[in-house]
Amino acid sequence: MLKTRLQVRQEFASKGLSISSWAKANGYSPNMVLAILADNELNPRLKCLRGDAHNIAVQLGLKSGEVSRGHSAVHRFAAA
């Protein structure tokens, strides 16, 4: 079942997790994760169609799909 942005934020709060720490642990930009979670639920500015935005939305349960690690930040940092 997909979650709303509010549900994801409440889940972080109930677990005592910061959004930034989750983002860093998963190899994403904290600013990108925060922007996705702060976006308008009905008319989002960030469509999360590809790349890290897509992967973040899938991992957070905001949309269905597969996480594609081929071009994510984890691999960019690991290769450096």
Description:
- Helix 2 crosses helix 3.
- By secondary structure, the chain is mostly helical.
- The chain has one domain.
- The termini are far apart.
- The chain has helices at 5-15, 19-25, 30-38, 51-60, 73-79.
Note the run of SSEs as H and E. HHHHH
Q: What general outline do the C-alpha atoms trace?
A: globular
Average the pLDDT over all residues and give the rounded result: 88
Distance between the termini: 37 Å
- Count of separate DSSP helical elements: 5
Major sheet: none
What would you call the structural class? Answer: mainly alpha
- Using only C-alpha atoms, the radius of gyration works out to 12 Å
> Level of helix content?
55-70%
Helix and strand topology:
Blueprint (H helix, E strand, L loop, with lengths): L4 H11 L3 H7 L4 H9 L12 H10 L12 H7 L1
Quick recap of the structure?
This protein has helices at 5-15, 19-25, 30-38, 51-60, 73-79. It is mainly α and 80 residues long.
Give short descriptive properties of this protein:
globular, mainly alpha
